[in-house]
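Supplementary notes (optional reading)

For those who missed the lab, this is the record we used. Protein: DNA 3'-5' helicase II. Length: 637 residues.
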Amino acid sequence: MTDSGAIDDDSVDAGADAEIVECLKLDAPRSFFLFAGAGSGKTRSLTEALKKVLPEVRRHLRLHRQQIAVITYTNAACDEVRHRTEFDPLVKVSTIHSFVWSQIDGYTADIKAWLEQELNNNIAELEEKERKGRGGKASLKRQRDIRAKSERLADLPSIKKFTYNPDGDNFGRDSLNHAEVISIGANFLTTKPLMQRILVNAFPIILVDESQDTHRPFMEALFDVQCKQKDKFSLGLIGDTMQRIYGHGLASLGQNVPPDWSTPAKAMNHRSPKRVIELINRIREPVDGRQQQARSDAQEGTVRLFIAVSGESSTEQTEQKLKARMAEVTGDDEWSNPEGDLKVLALEHHMTARRLGFSELFESLAVADRLRTGLLDGTLPGLRLFSERVQPVIASRQSGDEFAVAVILRKWSDLLGKKTLFAAGDDQTRTLLEASAAVDRLVELFGNGAEPSFLDVLHVVAETNLFPIPEALQPFSDRSEAALFYEVSAALADVEDDDREELSETTRAWGAFLLTPYSQIAAYRDYVNGLAAYDTHQGVKGREFDRVFVIVDDAEARGFLFPYEKLFGAKDKSATDLKNEQENKETGIDRARRLLYVTCSRAMQSLALIIYSEDPRKVREYVLRESWFEEHEVELL
């Protein structure tokens, strides 16, 4: 391949990039929606546009104390944009939750008024449901929710300032949760003209990456701001509706773009090989007809679909055999190498948790809605105590790295904190020995092949004051295992006991978690840090891997949100599916198609899919009829 071919590839989308730059001129701002399919280089387009525009608008922004806001989906994406824009102080890069909180933080009276109305409405709705509903667990949950919301309502007058952490738990009486921050921000922007003026005066340009998955209420609020402030405000949306993963996104984004908006589009896929691009184009074609083209220097690539009967064999053994088969087909031994560079994508988190060996940890906490987000992204303080403090210090001591032990304790432990060392004066040796003894007690839990629970570890941490105990775990620090087991078991079974304190959903979840084996924390830590070989279909948006192995198993996924059996033709559409199609409403099949598109488009060299189906032959017939795969690319097991 000649250099000129590569240069031509890089220039295919130059017109779209130039169009974006024109939209960001402050003297004639124009809003835009940039269609950027998988592997199209949307982050590059965004950052290159900023680099070209900033020299022209820098003086104006400084003079008016303004910035350009870039809202991205993850902290990792924030870091990438900051790095590419060379940490320019005129570019404010943040996640959606961080950005919204920065706009409403300090408006305590307004937040109180919103919360008071919201809580009163919620209580009224719950009381009406309780009046009409049945008894049992549903009634007990409604009653608990009514009490909790009533208590929170009573606390509102005494709150002087609200707190919020975009990256962690928010359980204090003065704290807001993630959904509330989005709802409050959206409400303020649409009902308070002053808030709109403040926003536009601070940020004449707002760019939203992954806009298809940005929370619907806030996106609608931004559209409202743009409509009313279009002469001095540019709203730039970058995304692809085919890559919308989460239900909270704006489904109609890209379909009803205002006529005065610019709509540039990128045609190239710089990531995937030709065969993968052909596949994702076929998967996408019935939705909107958009097609991508491969680079002229792209390799051909390999795709395979394996089909097995669901529930008839060990999935782990089957998947290991298929990795060996892919190594044979591609001539690439990394497929069969246990330490190889291969990313396995499963449909649900509990599927990956089971394969990686932390299913008990995961299942115990996943039942609590308020804990689920922090569980999935690794930000729960109760979990971080073990994953980011206890586990590293144990590993360092066991490997003989005393310097690493000291670094961890100096950073996280009060035993070696500045105040403790200062108070010790000349007797700091004794303080160091006490800290080392606390670590010894922790390591002793694992002697002779012992398998302590998280509760066992928590007891030692609490007794030695090795690390501060997060608020969520403090009620358990002196609880015996037998007592905790009874309380959790009784709560789950709704056992009536006047002497037993009623446990909330989150407290019950933490209790169940503490009874699980501590050994599962290492695999969980690797998983949330992206170091494990496994991930979920939803967790890899924006990422790319040389080899991708997609696992599809509706039965194991235990859900109905993504019915792959229907997408692959093994099951007929339901009456509800047909009705939704006629009314142009989203179906589970639509969601499954989008998720399949996202997972397949992660592959940079080769791609394999295994679908466990009740009717493998129907699946084979369907994918061949739709020209997703050729005959030699489909193998029935």
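If you only remember one thing from this example: The two ends are 39 Å apart (CA to CA).
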